[in-house]
Write a structure and sequence with these properties.
With 137 residues, the chain is α+β, with helices and mostly antiparallel strands. A 6-stranded mixed β-sheet has the order 2-1-5-4-3-6. It is globular. The protein has one domain: PK beta-barrel domain-like (M1 Pyruvate Kinase, Domain 3). It starts with 20 loop residues before the first strand and ends with a strand. Helices cover 15% and strands 28% of the residues. It has 2 helices and 6 strands; from the N terminus they run E-H-E-E-E-H-E-E.
């Protein structure tokens, strides 16, 4: 499924991400629903790639490794520290108080990982995600 997108200038409030790509596993979101009593909706995280996983936080074990998603290779660089955005209303989602506080208590505010692009390429829904090798130093 394709959707039209457009690039626009950032508004008055700057937004910051520590890397070009963010990734989270579905089992990690499920864990949040079960253990933090939050909706676990991925839209709160504004992540780029959601990977179907069976084990919560398995994506964190990929830090320092390269993963292939479709034609793209990504170097997983660090866990993603979350901010207050997870608690506030998002497009199509109401305010969800307690997300960040619970995440801080249980997961050091981290959920998902950041990655940088090693090899650019096309990524499509349903692509296999696989560990390739250790990332270059």
């Amino acid at each position: 499924m394709e959707a039209p997108v457009r690039l626009v200038a950032e508004g008055e409030v700057s937004h910051y991400d520590a890397a070009g790509v963010s990734l989270v596993g579905t089992a990690s979101l499920d864990w949040c629903r079960e253990h933090l009593d939050v909706d676990g909706d991925v839209r709160r995280l504004r992540t780029n790639i959601v990977v179907a996983t069976d084990e919560p936080f398995i994506e964190e074990t990929w830090t320092g490794r390269t993963v292939r998603v479709g034609e793209t290779e990504l170097s997983v660089v660090e866990r993603t520290e979350r901010c207050r955005m997870v608690d506030i209303a998002q497009d199509g989602l109401p305010t969800q108080p307690g997300w960040l506080k619970s995440l801080g208590r249980e997961r050091e505010l981290c959920l998902g990982v950041y990655a940088s692009v090693v090899t650019a390429g096309r990524i499509a829904l349903g692509d296999v995600v696989s560990l390739v090798k250790d990332s270059p130093a």
